[in-house]
Each structure stands twice: as C-alpha cells, then as structure tokens.
Amino acid sequence: MKTWYFIETEEEYDEAMRRFEVIRFAEKGTLEYREKILLGHIISEYENRTYHFEEVDPIEFIKIRMEDFGYKPADLARVYGDKGTVSKVLNYKQALSLNMIRKFSEILRIPVDALTKEYQLK
Q1: What's residue 58's pLDDT?
Q2: pTM for the whole thing?
Q3: What is the model's pLDDT at position 51?
Q4: What average pLDDT does range 98-122 have in this prediction?
Q5: Is 96 exposed, middle or buried (CB count within 10 Å of its CB: 0-12, 13-18, 19+)?
Q6: H-helix segments, the chain
Q7: What is the pLDDT of the chain when averaged over all its residues?
Q8: Inter-axis angle of helices 10-23 and 31-50, to 10 degrees?
Q9: pLDDT band at 92 (very low <50, low <70, confident <90, very high)
Q10: Cα 75 to Cα 81: distance, rounded to the nearest angstrom
C-alpha cells in the first residue's frame, strides 16, 4: 500500500483520484477502507485549497462531479436507493434531502456546505 501525504500538485491529485476510484467501495474495517477515508480527506483538502466552486449551485456541482468521475444517475441511485428521486433532484423538480446531501457528499467528494446552498426548483 502506498503512503499518502498532503496533495501538492495536480499530478498527485490525479493519482489520488485514480486510487480512490479503485477502492471507493472498500468494506468498512479493511485497510482499503481506511485508505479510502484518508484519500477523501486529502483530496477534499486539496480541492478546497485549489478550486473555488462558490458560483455553482448544488445540483450543477453534483453534475460536474458526476462527469469528473464518470458517474451516471443510476450510480447515485445505487448509493441513495431511489432512482426516481435522484432523477427529480437532478432535474430541479425536488430538493436535496439531508440524507442525499450526506451520501452525495461522500461519493462525489463535495463539501457538505456546498450542497446546502439554496437553489431554485423548476
């Protein structure tokens, strides 16, 4: 297992993201799970320090991160458990629930406060 440190370059960030994708479904209690949690923290720290997403509403932020990771709505539905609700949220027809915010923050590595900003439903 690789030893991880704070991310300082885009190359290190890309490497951490690739590794996270490999272990993102690691089972709790395993070394890979501990590595996944660590990577989540250092990736978030790097993103918070490097990128500024203030102008993006929560749904657009989710869509951007889905694209970054190659996720489809079905991938989010698998984590959340309800394909219809995920579709409504992504189409601005239903607001994010607290449970969704928690789960999407974890899987998409989006700071919770970025998902709690107000936005308009259609």
Answers
A1: 94
A2: 0.61
A3: 73
A4: 90
A5: middle
A6: 10-23, 31-50, 58-69, 73-80, 83-90, 98-108, 112-115
A7: 89
A8: 140
A9: very high
A10: 10
